[in-house]
Amino acid sequence: MTPSDPTGGAAGFGLAVRGVDGKARLGGIETAHGPVRTPAFMPVGTAGTVKGLLPEQVRGAGADIVLGNTYHLMLRPGSERIARLGGLRRFMNWPGPVLTDSGGFQVFSLKELSEITERGATFRSHIDGGRHELTPERAMTIQNDLDATIAMAFDECTEHPASRERAKASMERSMRWAARCKDSFAPRDGHALFGIVQGGTHDDLRRASAETLVGIGFDGYAVGGLAVGEGQDEMFRVLETTVPHLPEDRPRYLMGVGRPDDIIGAVARGVDMFDCVLPTRSGRTGQAFTRRGAVNIRNARHRDDARPLDETCACVACGNHGRAYLHHLFRCNEMLGPMLLTLHNVTFYQDLMAGIRAAIAGSRFGTWSAAFLEGYRSADAPLP
Amino acid sequence: MTPSDPTGGAAGFGLAVRGVDGKARLGGIETAHGPVRTPAFMPVGTAGTVKGLLPEQVRGAGADIVLGNTYHLMLRPGSERIARLGGLRRFMNWPGPVLTDSGGFQVFSLKELSEITERGATFRSHIDGGRHELTPERAMTIQNDLDATIAMAFDECTEHPASRERAKASMERSMRWAARCKDSFAPRDGHALFGIVQGGTHDDLRRASAETLVGIGFDGYAVGGLAVGEGQDEMFRVLETTVPHLPEDRPRYLMGVGRPDDIIGAVARGVDMFDCVLPTRSGRTGQAFTRRGAVNIRNARHRDDARPLDETCACVACGNHGRAYLHHLFRCNEMLGPMLLTLHNVTFYQDLMAGIRAAIAGSRFGTWSAAFLEGYRSADAPLP
């Protein structure tokens, strides 16, 4: 996709597919705020900060794009305030593109605090109990205030499990909302609006949702309503039945995913973009991702171990600090522990994506994936 | 002081006084682990980390030396463990010299958890209730395990207020302990042991303490038992009566001080070294130091203010982020808020010391101090 593409993507925004290996795609997305190499993982910066990291550390780890949460930002500090301060990127001093979710996922998670109608959702703030409304139109206004490089359609993330009837009604409402989003979205060069496929685990609903969205026409397509408890096998199956109905020339984004093996499996099924709180949240609780799987640094086995978390990692935590020190920091509840483990985990995820991209470029994604997963599923290095 | 100084400083450790302006001294301390420019402020790294900062950020802010706390480190992770891991500097990846306190200050703060005899102190850990002992000899062993560049004598920080009788008995015990520390300290090239002057606010006791310590012979001399509630005027008075009894060729260290105006006043009275938790602790609670005094970033007046904390500051927080963003981070309890404010405050303190050193070098310490304090005591910049 280029700005001049006749099928009608936003000017200055587009995916160039530079290579394929099976269904895995290597590409680059052009945006108003710089390029995104795909497959891409977006660190989550919920309230305008990737928790525990300076923006330059996020960039230095290799991230091209970060995610912000509309729900959190509309409540604090408020989207109008962020607009006055020059948009989210300037507010948080992030030099690259940002993608914002629509707020729907959080609002529907509030359950008893929210009420849903065809018009949209009203809800009480979890912070001060104040009443707020989110509709497709309001979600577009807020994301415009935030100056999101990529805005997401306001949709309903269907719960799991959901009956076919429930999944169908929920998906169809999301499709009506998607059309309203498209209508009220203010196009700007290099900015994009993505639609979100719903339909639970029902193949025909997923296909209908994808076809409806493609009919409306979006700059990219997300697959929503997964990683909500259905399990990896079922998630992969839904991707296999959904992705073929999405246009090849637009980015495909699997929302809220996931673990390294989830990402590898989804890339193999044609997905280009991911986000997940796992690397940052795990980093704060002492879980580190390594080439040999997850490590809980709080475990006593690390207390005399001067080796880095991961010998092959180039991050500051691995370059400058041993496990014994990281263990000590977590045992003492020192801020530097979460800071260093978050930096490591975000670096690990970006290195994972770089490895995936290099493997696709070299037409060896299958063998690379198998080797990575074999290492990832092996035990942590034995004590020295 | 040079390594060959006939008065007997430790080999490879010494103060070179490079300029004086009134009683203020400009100098450099040579150590086994690199030089320290004086007057120097040592950020506090209690448990082997300056809270909220990477070691390279502490270094980048201009700090030559950091302080570690024997009490905390002996309990967690244990000084023998740190010795096995190569000493505190290697453990925390700090490239410069470290000064460790003796643990006495914390132990005596425990009060009902500790018992003091002529032999030393026994106490229960605030972490797990385990029984521990600190004596002059044990404090030397632990600080040797930590590979402290500068070890401090084990002393009793006399409480304030203290009767003359109480202050005398306490000081005299500290002097007996100082002699035991000197006897059991294992000298190594470029490593130092400092004695600590006590005596409360009693001039004759301070003088007697200083003379006793000089008689024993230390590589540097600290003034302890101040900044414990006596007030700035009284603190300055004690410095004026104490410092003249300390040798000119050894570093003078005012422990636990302090606010910028305390530091400037103490430098004017001949002090070379400082430490205080104020820049780091304040940074975590939202108080920032600026050229125009302290600013509480949580105050609502900052919520729409895109300007930096301090226009003249070159730190990352001031260079890349506005007050509105910092305010937001603290309102949302985001880790990045304390991280950025700590970085700013530590930078502010190092800039303060650099300003002091430049002013002494230029023989304009008096006018510089007056101008700095006038600015520091003015109100925060008006809203734009």
Task: Throw out a few tags for this protein.
homodimer, 384 residues, alpha/beta, TIM Barrel, 2 domains, eight-stranded parallel beta sheet, three-stranded antiparallel beta sheet, 15 helices
Give a brief description.
Chain A contains 15 helices and 16 strands.
Polypeptide structure, described:
Two copies of one chain form a homodimer. Chain A has 384 residues and is of the alpha/beta class. Chain A folds into two domains: 22-275, TIM Barrel (Alpha-Beta Barrel); 283-376, no CATH class. The first copy, chain A, is 40% helix and 17% strand. Chain A is built from 15 helices and 16 strands. Chain A has helices at residues 55-60, 70-75, 79-84, 88-92, 104-109, 136-145, 164-184, 203-216, 232-242, 260-267, 278-285, 316-320, 323-331, 336-361, 365-376, and strands at 14-21, 24-30, 36-38, 40-43, 66-68, 98-100, 114-116, 121-124, 131-134, 150-152, 192-197, 220-223, 252-254, 273-276, 287-290, 293-296. The first copy, chain A, has an eight-stranded parallel beta sheet. In chain A, strands 1-2-3 form a three-stranded antiparallel beta sheet. In chain A, a hairpin with a 6-residue loop joins strand 8 and strand 9. The N and C termini of chain A lie far apart (52 Å). The interface between A and B is large, with 39 and 39 residues.
